[in-house]
């Protein structure tokens, strides 16, 4: 069993082939939280079609989810790649009533630095889901 008390880094890249398939469907024009960004995606205006793979730390993940809902209310599409956590308040109060949810089969292989400081391309610790605000619900 994995030690969930280890410090985990928040900088993990979306697998390129997975992103490309989503981009072909949604035609993204903005990413509010790109890997190693030099801007704060929580305080700027987003594009018309947004791909959002937020940091998975609870506070940031929830902040980007709230921001995505707000941006969708302006007529924008926001596609979030999130870990599956269906027992949370944010899932039941924000995601479930307002978004299309697509559960992914299998675990994605993210690229990043693991808790031991080593470069890794292994599977994530969580199953993943797409949360689509402002799309075809």
User: What is the spatial order of strands in the main beta sheet?
Assistant: 2-3-7-4
Number of helices: 3
**How many domains comprise the coordinates?**
1
CATH fold-type name: Rossmann fold
How much strand content do the residues show? 15-25%
The CATH top-level class label? Alpha Beta
What share of residues is helical? Answer: 25-40%
**Main beta sheet:** 4 strands, mixed
Low-pLDDT parts are 1-8
Distance between the termini: 37 Å
- Report the structural category: alpha+beta
N-to-C SSE series? EHEHEHEEEE
CATH architecture: 3-Layer(aba) Sandwich
Q: Which terms summarize this structure?
A:
7 strands; Rossmann fold; 21% strand; disordered N terminus; four-stranded mixed sheet; globular; 3 helices; alpha+beta; 137 residues; three-stranded antiparallel sheet
């Amino acid at each position: 069993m994995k030690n969930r008390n280890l410090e985990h880094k928040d900088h993990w890249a979306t697998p390129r082939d997975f992103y490309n398939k989503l981009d072909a469907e949604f035609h993204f024009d903005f990413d509010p939280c790109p890997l190693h960004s030099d801007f704060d995606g929580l305080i700027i205006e987003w594009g018309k079609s947004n791909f959002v793979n937020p940091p998975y730390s609870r506070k940031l993940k929830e902040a980007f989810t709230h921001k995505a809902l707000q941006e969708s209310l302006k007529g924008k599409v926001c596609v979030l790649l999130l870990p599956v956590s269906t027992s949370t308040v944010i899932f039941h109060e924000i995601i479930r009533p307002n978004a299309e949810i697509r559960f992914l089969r299998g675990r994605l292989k993210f690229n990043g630095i693991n808790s031991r400081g080593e470069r890794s391309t292994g599977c994530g610790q969580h199953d993943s889901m797409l949360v689509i605000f402002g799309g075809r619900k």
